[in-house]
Amino acid sequence: MTPQRQAVLEILTTSDAHPTVDQIYERVRVDFPMTSRATVYKTISLAKEMGVVMELEFSQGSNRYDGKRPYPHPHVICTKCKQVMDADDIEITDLKQQIIRKTGYRIVNHRIDFFGVCPDCQNGS
After folding, report:
1. Mean pLDDT of all residues in 21-48
2. Can you give the pLDDT at residue 86?
3. 100 and 43 housed in the same domain
4. How many Å apart are CA 24 and CA 39, to the nearest integer?
5. What local confidence, expressed as pLDDT, does residue 60 receive?
6. Does one domain contain both 54 and 3?
7. pLDDT level of residue 59 (50, 70, 90 thresholds)
8. Do 18 and 64 touch, CB atoms closer than 8 A?
9. 6/119 Cα distance (integer angstroms)
């Protein structure tokens, strides 16, 4: 694995911020100025296929990536500054089981996001 790809994976697996491709690209270029966006995209794509990164898709704005917790879990998203945070200690297993019982679906994946205004934006920071 190239050092550039290793740097992309390091950013993904250590970041609490759920970075965008552009944010990852800018951070990698600090140490590896010749890195292309294509390298970042390809590395993320491979990491998604391997299950070590989860993509948070948004219809408006850039998709975000979670390599620290690459499995379905709730997020809270600020509608002003676009910060994405994990909603730690929120258990959704019971909700998933209720949905399975009531619908008969075999759930293969899920996503639960809560949208609001973060404390910093509420305080005008």
Report:
1. 96
2. 92
3. no
4. 11
5. 78
6. yes
7. confident
8. yes
9. 34
SS3 content of the chain, % helix, strand, coil (to 5): 40, 15, 45
The answer to whether 56 and 75 are in contact (CB under 8 A) is: yes
Average pLDDT of every residue of the chain = 92
User: Whole-angstrom Cα distance, residue 85 to residue 75?
Assistant: 6
For residue 46, the domain's CATH number is 1.10.10.10
Residues 60 and 42 placed together within one structural domain of the fold: yes
Find the domain containing 78 and state its range: 72-125
Say how far apart CA 97 and CA 77 lie, in whole Å: 25
Query: Exposed, middle or buried, 47 (CB in 10 Å: 0-12/13-18/19+)?
Result: buried
Q: Are residues 57 and 82 in the same domain?
A: no
- The mean per-residue pLDDT over the stretch 32-52 comes to 96
C-beta atoms surrounding 11 within 10 Å: 20
pLDDT value at 92 more than 90: no
